[in-house]
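Q: Please design a sequence for this.
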């Protein structure tokens, strides 16, 4: 029988959905004057985003420390860590491959001539080796002040492992982080009550300012990218959820729906993290596993980004009439997988990493300027795909460790 609490929860996700639909409708209605949406509606969304962003650094740090401590011994922690990274990388490899194959099949961009007058500054592509070396922070406090997630995660992992190794003497430190993480979850809960309104305030100006005009010339490209997301969802996620997690995909999507909507509207895996963690809890992923895998996933696992990179690289090649050999396409897949590790979980981050992928095979960086105009519309579903991937992999890792199916009462 449905409890009152469940009914209330259901009611909440319906409210979020209504917020989204009304926001889209209002955005379409305000397309003739997007300033109204930007001046009077957007600030409410920004307020919500700021509140959620306020939590990211303390939440990620304390929850990863607790996740590492909660796993009990350093060996188990190392095993789960390796397994998680491997699962994340494998799904991202599938994602990048799907992108490249789909772009080959559809020949996206061939025969298209575009005016490239959009003035977008092409920033220098980040170097992948530097990104990997810089994972270990020389100054963890600076990493926190700058919000460098990879570095924060690395320091939190050292901290968690250290606490486990010190043992009894470190118990007060562990108790501190335990309480601290709980406080962060509590504040998240309060902020999340405003979600339906925030979703409205975030989506309305996006739709109002990115109307059909920007979309039309690049429609075929956008459609191929959307198709790539759907294929990855159906082939990799639904199969993974069914076979590896042993759950019904529909049930899974329903359970994580809130995270999907929030990622869609915020375009940020990091900003969605508090909600993703809540959804992980609803899926029954144990606290130590979800507090370890999900912040890591929000930072390094970007399947949506990898699909996008694969398709866009070939789109740019076709557009400029450049033929890419099989081995060059493999380089694109490999670079897209590595680039996704370095992609920050923030809006539009893939556009920056696109530079790395394009230059890996010498494609013109002007390509970035061409696709930048429609990036917002792609970033929305791209981030949702990133989030679904994090949750699926986390649930799978939990299942292999016998840490899935934990009820709320068991947890407390
Ligand atoms: N916005 C994406 C995220 O936060 C990153 C990207 O692909 O641009 O997951």
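A: Design:
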């Amino acid at each position: 029988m449905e409890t009152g609490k469940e009914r209330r929860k259901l009611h909440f996700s319906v409210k979020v959905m209504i917020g989204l639909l009304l926001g889209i409708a209002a955005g379409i209605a305000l397309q003739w004057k997007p300033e109204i949406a930007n001046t009077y509606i957007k600030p409410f969304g920004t307020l919500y985003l700021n509140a959620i962003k306020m939590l990211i650094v303390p939440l990620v740090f304390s929850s990863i420390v607790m996740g590492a401590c909660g796993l009990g011994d350093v060996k188990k922690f190392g095993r789960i860590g390796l397994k998680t990274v491997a699962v994340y990388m494998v799904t991202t490899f599938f994602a990048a491959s799907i992108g490249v194959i789909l772009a080959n099949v559809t020949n996206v961009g061939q025969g298209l001539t575009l005016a490239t007058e959009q003035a977008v500054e092409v920033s220098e592509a980040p170097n992948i080796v530097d990104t990997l070396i810089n994972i270990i922070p020389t100054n963890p406090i600076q990493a926190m002040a700058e919000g460098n997630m990879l570095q924060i995660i690395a320091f939190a992992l050292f901290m968690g492992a250290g606490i486990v190794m010190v043992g009894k003497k470190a118990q007060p430190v562990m108790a501190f982080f335990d309480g601290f993480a709980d406080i962060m979850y509590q504040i998240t809960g309060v902020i999340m009550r405003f979600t339906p309104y925030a979703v409205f305030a975030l989506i309305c100006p996006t739709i109002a300012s990115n109307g059909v005009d920007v979309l039309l010339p690049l429609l075929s490209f956008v459609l191929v990218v959307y198709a790539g997301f759907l294929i990855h969802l159906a082939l990799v996620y639904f199969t993974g959820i069914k076979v590896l997690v042993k759950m019904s995909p529909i049930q899974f999507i329903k359970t994580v729906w809130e995270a999907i909507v929030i990622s869609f509207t915020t375009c940020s895996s990091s900003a969605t993290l508090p909600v993703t963690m809540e959804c992980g809890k609803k899926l029954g992923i144990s606290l130590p596993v979800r507090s370890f895998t999900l912040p890591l996933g929000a930072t390094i696992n970007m399947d949506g980004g990898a699909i996008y990179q694969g398709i866009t690289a070939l789109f740019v090649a076709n557009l400029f009439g450049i033929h890419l050999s099989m081995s060059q396409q493999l380089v694109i897949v490999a670079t897209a997988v590595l680039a996704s590790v370095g992609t920050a979980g923030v809006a539009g981050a893939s556009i920056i990493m696109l530079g790395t992928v394009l230059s890996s095979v010498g494609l013109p960086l002007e390509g970035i300027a061409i696709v930048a105009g429609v990036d917002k519309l792609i970033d929305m579903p791209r981030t949702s795909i990133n989030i679904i991937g994090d949750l699926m992999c986390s649930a799978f890792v939990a299942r292999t460790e016998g840490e899935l199916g934990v009820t709320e009462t068991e947890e407390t």
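Q: Thanks. Anything notable?
A: Confidence is low (pLDDT under 50) at residues 116-122. The first helix runs from residue 4 to 29.
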